[in-house]
What we know:
By secondary structure, the chain is α+β, with helices and mostly antiparallel strands. The chain contains two helices and seven strands, in the order βββααββββ. The protein is globular and about 45 Å long. It starts with 15 loop residues before the first strand and ends with a strand.
Amino acid sequence: YNGVGAPGVTSPEGYFIGVSHCRERVAVCISDAPCAVDVESEERNFGRVADRYMTSSERALSAEPWWPAAVWCAKETLYKYARRRELDLLRDLRVLSLDAEAGRIVGSIAGGAPLSLLMRREEGCMLVCIL
Length: 131
């Protein structure tokens, strides 16, 4: 693990790793470029904490029942990708758009350039990654 607690690969050099888990799944991504992943059960009650991580514009992007899980996973993925501890899920990490059919979410970190995230739903689990 590096100084901000992110997993890393020491050998061979030049590779990056992302790791996530929930009760039902484990997700790992390995790449020759920075990457990150998050996986969560869609059954998790995100409504209890939605005000702490979803803006009104993010809520307006979709009325699907799985959308709070997707936003949570997208923001966790952006946080891991940034590799900076001081980021706030509500203030610094944004979900800008959704193309559910293509499995794409666009997000940003601290007002930076848009980043494309991949989204996949499978057997009650939500997975979001940046590769």
